[in-house]
Amino acid sequence: MDKKRKKKLLWQVPFLALLVVGTILIIRQQRNTPYQKCSGIIFGTTYNITYQYDRDIEADIVARLQQVDSALSMFNKKSVITNVNQGDGIIPAGKTGDMFIDVYHLAMKVSDETGGAFDITVAPLVNAWGFGFKSGDIPSRQQVDSILQFVGYHKVNYWASRNRRGINKEDSRIMLDCSAIAKGYGVDAVARLLDEKGIKNYLVEVGGELVTRGVSDKRLPWKIGVTKPTDDSLHIGNELQTVLNITDCAMATSGNYRNFYYKGGRKYAHTIDPKTGHPVQHNILSATVLSSKCAQADAYATAFMVLGLEKAKKVLERHPELMAYLIYDDHGENKVWFSPSLADKIAQ
Questions:
Q1: Under DSSP, is residue 276 helix (H, G, I), strand (E, B) or coil?
Q2: Which helix (H) or strand (E) holds 45?
C-alpha cells in the first residue's frame, strides 16, 4: 500500500469512529426518550395521542384541535362554518379561516372524484332522517324531494377578492356540514404540529381516525385494529375483523353498524345518499381507507359507503395512492375485499 493511500485511510479512521459513536449516542438517546400520552374530548368524540418527546406538549395539541373546532364545528356558534351557514358567509383572515378553506377545497375535490357521493351539503337530509340535530318521524318522499332542492355541492362556491373571501350559496337554506371530514382534518392538524417539532414516532387518533409515524414504544410498527361490523349502537363491541401494521400512514373508517335505528321493522343507517336523499342500502358494512392524509381517507371512506362495493373499486382503480379494506354483506355472510397493495400490512 503506498504512503498516500495509507495516510488517507488513517485520516478516515477517526472520522468513521466518530460517526459510529455519534450514531450509537443518537440511537441511545432516542430509545431513552419517553413516550408521552394524552387524551380528552373534542368534536363530540375522544382523542388519544401517543408521541415520543422529551416533554409534555398536550397544551399545544389541545390548542391546535381547538383551532380546527373553531373552523369546522357546527356546534360552535362562533366557528367559521357556523358563519357560512347562518351569517354572511365571509371567511375570516387567519388560521381558522385557512383551515376551513383547506377542508372546503378537499371536500369539493373528493365530491368531483366520487360523482357527488361525498357531499358536505347533505346535512339537511341527515337531520330529516333523525341523525343530526333533529329527530322525529321518517320523512315522506315529498319532504325528501323538497330538501333535495337545496342539497348539492355544486350549489356552493368559493370566492376571493383582494381583501375578502367567502362562500356563496345558491339557496340560503343550504347548510355545510364537514363532520365526515373534520375528524380526519383534526388528526392531520395535530400530525403537522408534531412534525414541526421534529417528532418522529407518534400515533394521533381522533374518533377512530388516525395517523401514525415511525414506531411504537415497543419499537415495532403501530398495530391498528379494524372492528368487526356488528350492529352496536351502544358502542360496546370490540371484536376485531383484522389488525393492520400501519406506519407513516393515515387511516379512517366509516360504517353503518353503530349509528342506526329501527322503525317499522326496518333498519335506517346514518349514511345518506346525496342523490336519492335516502339512507344507503348498499352491501358495504364498513369501509376503511388508508392514505397519506387522514382528511382524504375520512372523506373517501364516507363516499365508499355511499357508492357500494363495485363503484368503490372503480374509484380505487383511478386512485392508486389510496388503499381500502372493505367489509361487505354477501347474502347474509360477511366478506372482505382489500386493495392488493394492502396485503403486506395485514397482521392477522
A1: coil
A2: strand 45-52
Distances, alpha carbon 202 to alpha carbons 32, 50, 88, 190, 251, in Å = 15, 5, 40, 10, 14
d(CA 215, CA 201): 5
Residue 275, Cα to own-chain centre: how many angstroms?
23
Q: What is the DSSP code (8-state) at residue 132?
A: S
Please answer whether residues 84 and 99 qualify as being in contact, where contact means their C-beta atoms are separated by less than 8 angstroms.
no
Q: Which residue type does 155 have?
A: K
**Side chain identity, residue 4:** K
Specify which residues 206 forms β-bridges with.
47, 209
Contact call for residues 76 and 82 (beta carbons, < 8 A): yes
Residue 200 to residue 50: CA distance in whole angstroms? 11
φ and ψ of 184, to 5 deg: -60, -40
Question: Inter-axis angle of helices 58-72 and 95-113, to 10 degrees?
Answer: 60
pTM here?
0.86
What CA–CA distances, in Å, run from 137 to 51, 147, 264, 279, 304?
46, 15, 11, 14, 27
For residue 79, what is its C-alpha cell? 366557528
Helix (H) or strand (E) holding 180: helix 179-196
Binned average pLDDT, 10 residues per bin, the chain of 348 residues: 58 51 43 92 95 97 98 95 94 96 98 97 86 64 92 96 94 95 98 98 97 96 88 58 92 74 47 87 89 98 95 96 94 92 86
**Residues 260, 266: Cα–Cα separation, whole Å:** 10
Cβ count near 242 (within 10 Å): 18
